[in-house]
Amino acid sequence: MPTKEDVVSKEIIHLKQKVDEMGLELRYITTLLQRSQGSDPRSPELFDLLRDEARKKAETRLDAGMAKRCDMRPECRQRFMDLLDENLDLLDRPRVTEEDLDRQTDKLEALKSQAVTGRCDGCFREVGSLFQDQAELMRQLRLYRSKEEIRDSIDIMPEDIIVRDLLEPLSNPQRMVIMKALSRSQRSFTELSSLTNLRGGNLLFHLQRLTGTGMVFQRGGRGDYALTPKGQRSLETVN
Question: Distance from CA of residue 76 to its chain's centroid?
Answer without folding.
Answer: 24
